[in-house]
Amino acid sequence: MVDVAAALRSVDLAEARARCRALARRHGENFTTISRLAPREMRTHLSVVYAFCRAVDDLGDEGRLPEELAACPCAAAPPGERRIERLDAFESELVRAWAGRAESPLFVALTETAAAYRLPLEPFRRLIEANRMDQRVRRYATYDELIHYCEHSATPVGRIVLGLYGISDSESARLSDATCTALQLTNFWQDVKRDFAMGRVYLPEQDMARFGVSEGDLAMEIGGSPFCCLMEFEVARARALFDEGVALLGRVSGHLRVDLALFSRGGLAILDKIERQGFDTLLARPTLSRLDKARIFLSALLSGSTL
Fold first, then answer.
1. What angle do CA 189, 191, 210 make, to 5 degrees?
2. Secondary structure, 3-state, the chain
3. In this structure, how many other beta carbons lie within 10 angstroms of the beta carbon of residue 80?
4. Chain segment 52-105, per-residue pLDDT in tens
5. What is the 3-state secondary structure (H, E, C) of 88-135?
6. Could you read off the pLDDT of 180-211 as tens digits, one per residue?
7. How far lies 276's CA from each of 183, 187, 232, in Å?
8. Can you tell me the distance from the alpha carbon of 61 to that of 276, in angstroms, rounded to the nearest whole number?
9. Nearest Cα to 150, choosing from 124, 128, 182?
10. Chain CA centroid to CA 139, Å
């Protein structure tokens, strides 16, 4: 059991929450999306979860924490320390927080949120491990290997959000996993060119070989028939996962149903854009305009229980 009282002795809770909200406001388009309809207290807890996710991603991608969380002890690590070692230190702080020994604003706020909703430690640890995997793995041989990565990078977020709403049954978790994986895959297919520039290829090597696509093609930004056929195949996989996860909307209610529908509709809209440009995401990165987002929000608000 998390000892909230012990955690609050080190850092003021109001200050800790304020730092998380500031980070969410500065970076959090996705946070704004999921929280705009939530009650104020729930928005606070969502901002804490968002701050944790952002912190982990920044440690993994940039080797440093966002400025709002610079008080975190692992941020004081020597500049030459490797990212993976900073992630290890971050996880040690997470474990201390669950033992009631939080030492920084982020973990004080997270301690309080975890205690209020009885959140398990494991999904948070998996998110950290996903960023360790990013340091070690730059290619995925098979689709199953990629899904294993998504089980660390994507599905824990859905599990945490369900936990905030008191939902813990296995079927809801399974459906959430499908939706979160679909969203992660959609992001990969949207960003093939951008990821390759950073040295990462999320397209499974087995699939690339099947369709006759090489890394040289990605480097030279050669789209055309083989690449587009590969992307059509991968887009269909993401759509199937969205279709599988849609049943979750019938198991939740209120603003959460609308928020979840909003994410799924947004992901599907990106897949539609990929299809409309002939599946060639090397030619142009598909994005949603403000008008697209407004339409998606209104459609989710009016019919949140379906896609």
1. 40
2. CCCHHHHHCCCCHHHHHHHHHHHHHHHCHHHHHHHCCCCHHHHHHHHHHHHHHHHHHHHHHHCCCCHHHCCCHHHHCCCCCCHHHHHHHHHHHHHHHHCCCCCCHHHHHHHHHHHHHCCCCHHHHHHHHHHHHHHHCCCCCCHHHHHHHHHHHCHHHHHHHHHHCCCCCHHHHHHHHHHHHHHHHHHHHHCHHHHHHCCCCCCCHHHHHHHCCCHHHHHCCCCHHHHHHHHHHHHHHHHHHHHHHHHHHHHCCHHHHHHHHHHHHHHHHHHHHHHHCCCCCCCCCCCCCHHHHHHHHHHHHHCCCCC
3. 6
4. 999 999 898 888 888 777 666 665 555 545 889 999 999 999 999 999 898 888
5. HHHHHHHHHHHCCCCCCHHHHHHHHHHHHHCCCCHHHHHHHHHHHHHH
6. 999 999 999 999 999 999 999 999 999 999 99
7. 19, 17, 11
8. 31
9. 182
10. 19
> Which is it for the CA torsion 42, 21, 261, 140, positive or negative?
negative
Residue pair 173/154 in contact by the 8 Å Cβ criterion: no
Segment 247-271, tens digit of pLDDT: 999 999 888 998 899 899 999 999 9
Match 């390759």 to its residue by tokens. Answer: 196
Token reading at 111: 């301690």
Contacts 24+ apart (CB under 8 A), 119-122: 119/160, 119/163, 119/164, 120/163, 121/94, 121/95, 122/156
CA 62/CA 189 separation, integer angstroms: 22
Q: Can you read off the two tokens belonging to residue 289?
A: 């305009």
